[in-house]
Amino acid sequence: MDIKINKVESHNDKRGKLIVLLKYQDLPSSSKKFGEVFYITFSKRGTTRANHYHKNWREWFIVVSGKIKVVLEDIKTKERKKLTLDAQSHSIKRLEIGPFVAHSFTSLSKHAVLLNYSNKVWIKKDVIPYIIGGNTKNQNAKKD
User: pLDDT of 23-82, one tens digit each?
Assistant: First the structure.
């Protein structure tokens, strides 16, 4: 399955926390051209977003508020992985997802926020619906 989970650089002091989402050197050479950044909110606990995959996109995600359950499935091999991303964790993680990996995000908090960088500009034909594990609580917005 084409995913990576990396610890990110984080700096804490009395003012708060500064987290480095992504550095230029973290990107593979095929992703060095700027794509898009998304700020994704979850309005209540149990809200699910995504339930799709992309044929051409590579994406990076980091939770900046709340806790989110992530379910990933390689659509070719059917390999599945579940994990939790938590903004309050002592070790903030960045999730990288490659093409043909279906992804689903469910808020485990009352409110949650997810930042997403995509190496390509959004186009509808590269967002292929894919319900992972029968999760029917999908509440997609037009672009997710």
Answer: 888 888 888 888 899 999 999 999 999 999 999 999 999 999 999 999 999 999 999 999
Instruction: Measure the CA–CA gap between 141 and 4, rounded to whole angstroms.
Output: 26
The structural domains of the chain, ordered by start, are: 3-12+35-129 (2.60.120.10)
What's the CA gap between 69 and 82, in Å, rounded? Answer: 7
